Amino acid sequence: MINYFDFGLHKGDEITMFLDAIQPINSSVNVYGFEAHPDLHKRVKKRFEHSQDINIFNKAISNKNSKVNLYIAPNNKMEGNSIFPTKNNVSSEYVEVDGILFSDWLLK
Tens digits of per-residue pLDDT, 53-97? Predict the structure, then answer.
């Protein structure tokens, strides 16, 4: 069994690339994807809604289990959004999202 984790899904293309790459080697895989932006999360969740081994969460991986600001990367069509306002491609525009400590989530 392989567990694959993806933090920041955008459109979910990397999940597809991973599954294509791993299929000849091992068909037993669980995918856990995290997308903080609500609109992107909805799109990715719908994209993989018929895949029972793909789990999509509307959470930001953070240093705390609480609300965090997700700063928007507008020139990249929201690819590269970040909880860090100092990232070079994000604007001052943000949405408030749920943040989680990955270690806490993993222990559950």
Answer: 999 999 999 999 999 999 999 876 778 899 999 999 899 999 999
Task: Let me know: does 67 contact 96? Beta carbons within 8 Å.
Answer: yes
Residue 35 has which token pair?
């997308």
Helix (H, G, I), strand (E, B) or coil at 35: coil
Contact 32, 3 (CB under 8 A): yes
**Cα 41–10–50 angle (5° rounding)?**
55
Task: Give the separation between CA 106 and CA 103, rounded to whole angstroms.
Answer: 5
First vs last Cα of the chain: how many Å apart? 18
d(CA 36, CA 57): 8
70 forms beta bridges with 95
Provide the whole-model pTM: 0.90
Residues 26 and 6: their CA atoms lie apart, in Å, by 18
Residues 91, 108: contact at Cβ < 8 Å?
A: no
H/E stretch holding 68: strand 67-71
